[in-house]
Amino acid sequence: METNKIKQTDLTYLKELSNGSNEFIVEMITVFVEQTPLEIANMEKHLAAGDWKSLRATAHKMKPSFSFMGIKELEGVIKTIEDYAANEKNLDLLPGLILKVKEVCTQAIEELVQEKPQFL
Amino acid sequence: MKTEATVSVPPGGKDDTEVLSEQLEKYDALKNAPQPKKTGKNKEITVFLVDDDLLFLKALEHSITSKLPSATIKSFQTGEACLQQIKLKPEVVILDYYLNSTVPYAWNGLTILKQLKKISPKTKVIMLSAQDSLDVAVKCIDNGSFDYISKTESAFVKINNVLSNIIDDYNTNNKGIKPYQVISMVIIIILMICFLLK
């Protein structure tokens, strides 16, 4: 797909936070790569169960991780999921939004896995 | 009176008012000047970090360690785990408002804040939230939170500034009188001498 060619991650902010520590960058990438698929699976589980409170909590927790990895495209999407789940509105839009998070994160993880060796 | 002249007119030919105003200017300048970076031994504070988001926890730990290497950091993913270690009497606890995304029945930050203030009232608690809400901020401050910071990109800078101020306060309280306070006392003594001699 054409959209897959757009780079999803931007490590500028993470590098700034690192103060020159590659070890820190590697650690952050490792945690993101391990943690994000689990969080997405949790969102899908809460969506299927109609557990909007837990869905809101999971979306809320994921917000800063997209800022760290510079995934701008998802910063608004995750806020929308949190808002819809918190207020139990537009619930029919949630599956599409969660799918969007899943697709972008899958690509972001691939990019990060490729970039990680340069910091080792 | 000769005595008056010898005291109030210094060799430069300035009178009392001029000398006094110069001294007051110096005093004001010293009082308002940014404090120089301390090179001496500062108080080593213990900081507890509590957040269920491991990524944010690691970033925060790295940021504080980089800026304040003398601080001892302990990280926890639940408030309950933090409370178990509160006997270590941390000077500061940085506490996330939402703590139940991983453990559904975990206590939230506000409940932990109330417990912390009961057990260790002197510990300063800085509340964090990814939600920029005035209601949440007011609730936290009402329950004894020292500060409330939202998890934006500037959060780390703000946290480090608050921690630096806390460390400065500890050091100031331990070091006694500041230079501008000494100068103000000298000015008052000079004024008293002038008054007595007139």
Q: What can be said about this structure in brief?
A:
The complex is a heterodimer of chains A (120) and B (198). Chain A is an all-alpha fold and 120 residues long.
Explain what this protein looks like in three dimensions.
The complex is a heterodimer of chains A (120) and B (198). With 120 residues, chain A is mainly alpha-helical. Chain A has helices at residues 12-18, 22-49, 52-68, 72-87, 94-115. Chain A has a single domain, classed as Four Helix Bundle (Hemerythrin (Met), subunit A) (Up-down Bundle). Chain A is built from five helices and no strands. The longest helix of chain A is centred in the first third of the chain and has 28 residues, at 22-49. Chain A is elongated, with a radius of gyration of 15 Å. Chain B has two domains: 2-37 and 178-197, no CATH class; 48-175, Rossmann fold (3-Layer(aba) Sandwich), CATH 3.40.50.2300. In chain B, strand 1, helix 3 (54-67) and strand 2 (72-76) form a beta-alpha-beta unit. In chain B, helix 2 runs antiparallel to helix 8 and helix 3 packs across helix 7. The longest helix of chain B is centred in the last third of the chain and has 21 residues, at 155-175. Mean pLDDT of chain B is 80; it is low at 1-12 and 30-40.
Q: Any descriptors?
A:
heterodimer, A: 120 residues, mainly alpha, Four Helix Bundle (Hemerythrin (Met), subunit A), 5 helices, B: alpha/beta, 2 domains, 5-stranded parallel sheet, 5 strands, 53% helix, elongated
The gyration radius over C-alpha positions of chain A equals: 15 Å
Based on the coordinates given, report the CATH architecture of chain A. Up-down Bundle
- How much of the residues of chain A is beta strand, in percent? under 5%
Count of discrete alpha- or pi-helical segments spanning 4 or more residues of chain B = 8
**Parts with pLDDT < 50 across at least 5 consecutive residues of chain A:** none
Radius of gyration of chain B: 24 Å
Number of helices of chain A: 5
Average predicted confidence as pLDDT of chain B: 80
* Average pLDDT metric of chain A: 94
| Proportion in β-strands of chain B | 5-15%
CATH topology annotation of the largest domain in chain B: Rossmann fold
Q: Strand sequence of the main sheet of chain B, in spatial order?
A: 2-1-3-4-5
